[in-house]
Amino acid sequence: MSDEQDVVLYEVKDAVAIITMHRPRYNNVQNSKMTYALDDALYRAVDDDEVKVIVLAGHGKHFSAGHDIGTPGRDVDQRFERRHLWYDHSNKPGGEFLYAREQEVYLGMCRRWRDIPKPTIAMVQGACVAGGLMLAWVCDLIVATDDAFFQDPVVKMGIPGVEYFAHCYEMPPRIAKEFLFLGARMSAQRAYELGMVNRVVTRDALRETTMEMAQHIAQMPRLGLQLTKQVINTAEDNMGKRSTMDMAFGYHHFAHVHNEIVSGDKLGGYDGKAMAQANKAQAEQAKKKGQ
Ligand code: ZN
After folding, report:
1. Could you tell me the distance, in angstroms and rounded to a whole number, from the CA of residue 209 to the centre of ligand 1?
2. Cα of 101 from ligand 1 centre, angstroms
3. Most buried among 11, 43, 51, 95, by the most CB within 10 A?
4. How many Å lie between the centroid of ligand 1 and the Cα of residue 61?
C-alpha cells in the first residue's frame, strides 16, 4: 500500500469547495486510495450547507493521466471499506476480481458522483486521459486550458474504452468512433467545438474563470440547482446513457477476461510506462504530420 499522504486536498472558499487530486509526481493517476479520498471529499462537500458548488481539480502539470496502472502506490489488490453494496473483490478468482472492483470504484463511484445533488465543475489542464476523462465527464461543467487534451487510448488494450462509457453522450457518435478507433489526443479547442467543454482559457486564467462561474452559480437557490441537474441527468439517461454504459461495462469485462486468457494480462500487456510511451510516440507522430 502507498505511504503517500494527502492524495486529495480539500478547501472551501466563498461557498465553493475545491477538491484537488494530489499525486502530481504521477500526473494524478488514480489509485483506490485516491478514489476513496475523492469520495470522502465529495461527501463532505455535499454534507456542508455552506458549500453550494464543487470544483474538481488536479494539482500540477496535468489534471489526471488516468487510472493507476503502474506506480508504486498501485493498490488494485487491496481491500477498502466499500461505498456500495458490492462484496470485497480482493479475494475473488478469475473475472470476478476486476468485475467486482470496477463495479465499485469505477462505474459505481462515477455514477454516484455524477448524480450528487450540487453542481460540479471540472477544472482541467494538461492531460485528461482515460480514467481522467471519467472524472471530468461526471462533472456538470468543464473548464479547460488551451493546452489541455482529452484521450481514451484504452482500445489499444483491446478494451472498448474506459469503464464509464459516456463517449457517445459527450460527443457525436461518429466523432466518438474516431476518438476511440484512433485513440489520439483531442485538443481543448475541438472539445469545445463539440460541446464537451464549456470554456477554454489560458492556464493563468483557469482558476479565476472557474471560480467566477462557481460564484455565479452559487447565487442560485440550492434546490433549484439540484432539481435542474436531476432533470438533465434523467434526460441523458432517457437517451440511453445508463443502459449503454451497462452494456459497455459488460463488454469491457469480457475484454479484460479475454486478455487474461490470451496473454495472461488483463490490460493486454500495457502498464503505465508502456501506455505513456505509446501515447507519446503517437502524439509526436501527429505533430510531425501537422495534425
Ligand atoms: Zn477496466
Report:
1. 34
2. 9
3. 51
4. 25
Residue at 19: amino acid letter: I
Helix H or strand E segment including 286:
helix 272-288
Domain boundaries along the sequence of the chain: 8-288
pTM: 0.95
From the CB of residue 95, how many other CB atoms can be counted at a distance below 10 Å?
16
Fold category of 8-288 in CATH:
2-enoyl-CoA Hydratase; Chain A, domain 1 (3.90.226)
Q: Are strands 186-187 and 149-151 parallel, antiparallel or unpaired?
A: antiparallel
Scan for cell 471560480, then name that residue. 211
Could you tell me the distance, in angstroms and rounded to a whole number, from the CA of residue 241 to the centre of ligand 1?
18
Mean pLDDT, contiguous 10-residue spans, the chain (291 residues) = 82 97 95 97 98 98 95 93 94 96 97 98 98 98 98 96 98 98 98 98 98 98 98 98 98 97 92 86 86 65
DSSP lists the bridge partners of residue 95 as none
Among 56, 76, 62, CA closest to 9: 56
CB 190 within 8 A of CB 148: no
CA of 72 to the centre of ligand 1 (A): 19
CB 161 within 8 A of CB 141: no
CA dihedral 227, 46, 11, 26 (to 10 degrees): -90
